[in-house]
Specification:
The complex is a heterodimer of chains A (381) and B (291). Chain A is built from ten helices and 20 strands. Chain A is α+β, with helices and mostly antiparallel strands and 381 residues long. The two termini of chain A are 42 Å apart. Chain B folds into two domains: 73 residues, no CATH class; 156 residues, Orthogonal Bundle (MetI-like fold), CATH 1.10.3720. The radius of gyration of chain B is 25 Å and the shape is globular. The chains are: A alpha+beta (381), B mainly alpha (291). At the A-B interface, α3, α5 and α6 of A face α7, α8 and α11 of B.
């Protein structure tokens, strides 16, 4: 059975008749038995990729290989995949049992036999008590379980989930996402889960694929995506990071020195990229790794330090989110550049700060993460 | 609606008065006919009532002089059933086809709708003329069926547009994903889900045909349908039997409508009605205990 659920996309391209390019040359490998999340803002092509793997849409170009077989031209039912639709698309006129047994009915299985199999699956997902209910009589979480049971009754090698949690309220979303993760472990098959919620993706997935404008920006483990974003786009999209830019100045002792737009001096570990050939460099600093101090208390010379005026303070429970408007050290307010610091709750309340106060945020060189992409525009969180 | 002071605005009374007038005009005449049809033997075509009883209902079905009522009914009902069946089949099929844009779909749609605008009487004369020209015999089951379809099909098509406008294609995709062939998807998923809409189309097809007058006038051939028979009776029958006929046919129409609407309501309630009553509290909804 090993390898049956391995998915390989090679140069997949999708152009719609109206000229829109939804997927722009995607190469992606998902190993068998992986929980993979396709993550990106709406319109980034993630759902189109899912639908092309399922066979509900055909790629304009490129290959889709599932378990070593090129599935081009095959109908959805002959790909070994099953799809869980957004809002589930449970048949409203059929009972839970008939919904779950539908795939077997489509295969011409006799009633007694297909009900026996449906009952076994219902047992597995704890739906036995609801067998004769109609979908409208179920809660959101129960509907999701019916959709899951309906999809897995044919024992697919890949389960494709299109925004499976978006129809649920916040409380259920957390509960059902761990149920999904558990189910994936039990079944041992490949899950491909499309979502636009960063926290959802990093919470459940082995492999997170961040997408933008029809391309894959980065594919890595949840921790890899979050702690080591490849580009400014990924860093901004995942949140939790400040993305800064500077002009290259010098290299010395394995360190590169940059000059920030407001005259700040940034020191970075020297990487292959920090060479004079790249005069502008972008890097990220985690919001929780920044030390915040009142400006008067900062020692000179200020290296890896930004100055700013406190613009907003949000209490978040375990930390306090402090948003700064960056300014020149002398105090001239400059532009719209924002800088966010997560201050640990206890530390914040020992020496609280007020809106409008001038502060400085500084970090260690070890907390600098150099980004390879340019300072491209992306969503800011 | 109440204003902040608890008084209704004057527009409420104006609109309520207008609505009362509308209801009086709609049901007043019908009510007069109902009442007058229950007169005794000495009854006439106008008030006051003379006696009370079912005399004219008996008269309607027994006396030859009142016209061929039974014969007309025996033609009108099968005709309505034929028109209803054709309307349902063609409307559903076209509704499915029109979900995708195809070459000429716009022209085809406006062409179909245009027959609603064309005067029925003119259509009827034209169809009658054409049958004569081609040397085809005219009957209620041939030329009249075609003439009536010119009004029922556009209606049916418009209803199906509304039905498919709300139809979520994810149902079909889900069925396809689960391995169902197109014919099976239609039978097990699409038709059951749009059944209330299909009943509505059937109801329209039946009732439009059952009381169609203009389009049948020149196309029914040698025999009359019920509306034609009633019309001819108004010129030569001068007894309350005419009113009795009105009462019988109206009651029949109401029964057909009531059956259809009840069926639609039952389907909708089975699917959605008990949702709120049985939905567990949100906090407990996801757990196994939610069942």
């Amino acid at each position: 059975m090993s390898g049956r659920g391995r998915i390989e996309l090679v140069g997949v391209f999708k152009r719609y008749p109206d000229g829109t390019v939804a997927v722009n040359g995607v190469n992606l490998t998902v190993e068998d038995g992986t929980y993979c999340c396709l993550l990106g803002p709406s319109g980034c092509g993630k759902t189109t990729i899912l639908r092309m793997i399922a066979g509900h849409e055909a790629p304009t170009d490129g290959e889709i290989v599932i378990g070593g077989e090129n599935v081009a031209g095959r109908p959805p039912s002959q790909r070994g995949t099953a799809m869980m639709f957004q809002s589930y698309a449970l048949f409203p006129h059929l009972t839970v049992r008939d919904n779950i047994a539908f795939a077997l009915r489509a295969r011409g299985m006799a009633k007694a036999e297909r009900y026996r199999e449906a009952d076994a699956v219902m047992e597995q997902v704890q739906l036995t008590a609801l067998a004769n209910r109609l979908p409208a009589q179920l809660s959101g979480g129960q509907q999701q379980r019916v959709a899951l049971a309906r999809a897995i009754i044919t024992k697919p090698r890949v389960l494709l989930l299109d925004e499976p949690l978006s129809a649920l309220d916040e409380f259920l979303r957390l509960q059902m996402r761990s149920e999904l993760r558990l189910m994936q472990k039990q079944l041992g098959i490949t899950f491909i889960h499309v979502t636009h919620t960063q926290l959802e993706a990093v919470a459940v997935a082995d492999q997170v694929v961040v997408m933008a404008q029809g391309r894959v920006e980065q594919s890595a483990s949840a921790r890899g995506i979050y702690a080591e974003p490849r580009s400014a786009y990924v860093a901004r999209f995942m949140g939790g990071q400040n993305v800064l830019t500077g002009k290259f100045e010098a290299v010395a002792n394995g360190q590169a020195t940059l000059r920030g737009p407001l005259g700040q001096q940034f020191v970075l570990p020297q990487t292959a990229r920090s060479a004079p050939a790249h005069p502008a460099m972008t890097f990220a600093v985690r919001r929780d790794r920044v030390r915040l101090a009142k400006q008067a208390a900062v020692a000179a010379p200020p290296v890896n330090t930004v100055f700013g005026t406190v613009k907003a303070i949000e209490y978040q429970g375990i930390y306090v989110k402090v948003t700064l408007a960056l300014v020149m050290p002398e105090g001239a307010v400059n532009g719209a550049d924002e800088f966010v610091v997560y201050v640990e709750e206890g530390r914040y309340f020992r020496d609280p700060i007020a809106i409008g106060e001038k502060v400085a945020g500084s970090w260690d060189i070890d907390d600098v993460h150099v980004l390879t992409g340019g300072p491209s525009a992306g969503p800011v969180h | 609606m109440l204003t902040a002071t608890g008084k209704r605005p004057w527009t409420f009374y104006a609109l309520a008065g207008f609505f009362a007038l509308y209801v009086a005009f709609l049901y007043g005449p019908m009510l007069c006919i109902f009442i007058l049809s229950f007169q005794g033997q000495g009854g006439a075509l106008v008030f006051p009532m003379r006696g009370f009883g079912l005399y004219w209902f008996v008269d309607l079905f027994t006396q030859v002089r009142t016209g061929d009522v039974l014969g007309a009914i025996s033609r009108s009902i099968p005709l309505a059933l034929i028109v209803m069946t054709l309307t349902v089949v063609i409307s559903v099929a076209s509704g499915l086809a029109f979900r995708n844009r195809f070459r000429g779909s716009g022209i085809l749609f406006y062409g179909a709708i245009a027959s609603l605008v064309a005067p029925g009487l003119v259509l009827s004369i034209g169809i009658g003329l054409m049958f004569q020209l081609l040397g085809l015999p005219q009957h209620w089951y041939s030329s009249a069926v075609g003439a009536q379809l010119t009004s029922t099909l556009p209606f049916g098509l418009l209803i199906m547009f509304a039905v498919f406008g709300r139809f979520n294609r994810a149902y079909e995709e889900a069925a396809r994903d689960l391995g169902a062939a197109p014919a099976l998807i239609l039978r097990l998923v699409v038709v059951p889900i749009i059944l209330p809409g299909i009943i509505a189309v059937a109801l329209f097809g039946f009732t439009l045909s059952y009381d169609e007058f203009a389009r049948t006038l020149q196309t029914s051939g040698p025999t009359n349908t019920l509306p034609l028979e009633i019309w001819s009776m108004t010129t030569n029958v001068t007894s309350p039997a005419l009113y009795a006929l009105g009462t019988v046919t109206t009651a029949f129409s109401f029964i057909v409508i009531a059956i259809s609407l009840t069926a639609i309501a039952l389907i909708q309630r089975r699917r959605f009605g008990r949702t709120l009553a049985t939905k567990p509290p949100v906090a407990a909804g996801g757990g196994a205990a939610g069942g």
